[in-house]
Amino acid sequence: MRAVQISSWGGPEVFEVVERPEPEPREGEVLVRVAAAALNPVEWFTAAGYLQELAPAVVPPYVPGWDFAGTVVRGEGYAEGERVVGMVRQFDGLDGSLAELVAVPGELLGRLGDADLVAAGGLALNAVTARQALELGGLAAGQTVVVTGASGAVGGAAVQLAAAAGATVVAVASTGDEEHVRSLGAATVLGRTSAEELGERVRGLVPGGADLVLDAVPLGPAAVGAVCDGGRFVTVLDSGVPAPERGILGVKVDVRPRPGELQELATAYAEGRLRVRVAAAYPLEEVAAAVEKASAGGLRGKVVVLL
Fold first, then answer.
1. Please, where in the chain does CATH 3.90.180.10 lie?
2. Where does this protein have coiled-coil stretches (predicted)?
């Protein structure tokens, strides 16, 4: 099968298409023919060698990729041709999703019905991250939740999930993206701001501060000023966790797929309740160009590789 392989640490040029043996599914695993796999920052940061301490099990040569959507080839409990979405937690040293075939535990897949596979290729990692981060934050109906980076994939998913749970969402978004973020369910959209200014702006809207801040950009620990006493602050980076103050719980989300979780998110996607924005799609042969485009930033949506 064709797959992307990282043979040495480096930039977009190390994302090379090679021939590799087809995976053989083990007991409980499902073999999936990948149709689309989105690129995430973790892919190019890992390939550059920046995450060796965090992911010591990932060493060249390896197949990169976390997200994928495709059709079932074979596997217990699944019919051939079923459309599914999934995620490979590559930090565990597993071959990633940028390959024509991938074998993953069936309990970690989500059935998509007839939903679009291209956008679904960017669903899993970001939606699971958003969901688990909101859970860490103790999300509940009636709360005020601040989401930074709401124009991005994790932030956009978090806005949708928090609004659907009955929270009032205050979102921080890029200029020109205000209407899109409102369409995701944000009650208020703030323009880009510093971590220090965020607290002042949020407290101008919500006296006392928000119940929960999900810092998906992240702006950094100083954004804790937007949280009320006894509230929660969740970030995506270890360096983003604030020092203890005012009884606030500050934590970093560590994403690990859980049985059944992706099915709930896949159902929401298939029913139109969870949207994924795609900025560009590239054929597998142009994966290096796709990585260069995605890593340059400034896009409104995911870059997806088509297999």
1. 2-122+276-306
2. none
Q: Does residue 70 contact residue 32 with C-beta atoms inside 8 Å?
A: yes
Contact residues for 261 (Cβ-Cβ < 8 A; gap 6+): 128, 131
Measured from the Cβ of residue 142, the count of other Cβ atoms closer than 10 Å reads: 9
- Cβ neighbors of 264 (< 8 A, separation 6 or more) are 110
Per-10-residue mean pLDDT of the chain, 307 residues long, equals 98 98 96 98 96 94 98 96 96 94 96 97 97 98 97 96 98 94 98 94 96 96 97 95 96 94 97 97 98 92 97
Q: Domain 2-122+276-306, what fold?
A: Quinone Oxidoreductase; Chain A, domain 1 (3.90.180)
| Residue 100 confidence (pLDDT) | 98
Tell me if the domain spanning 126-252 has CATH number 3.40.50.720.
yes
Which run of H or of E encompasses 36? strand 29-38
164: amino acid identity, one letter: A
The model carries a pTM of: 0.96
The C-alpha angle 35, 305, 109, rounded to 5 degrees, equals 45
Domain limits, CATH 3.40.50.720, in the chain: 126-252
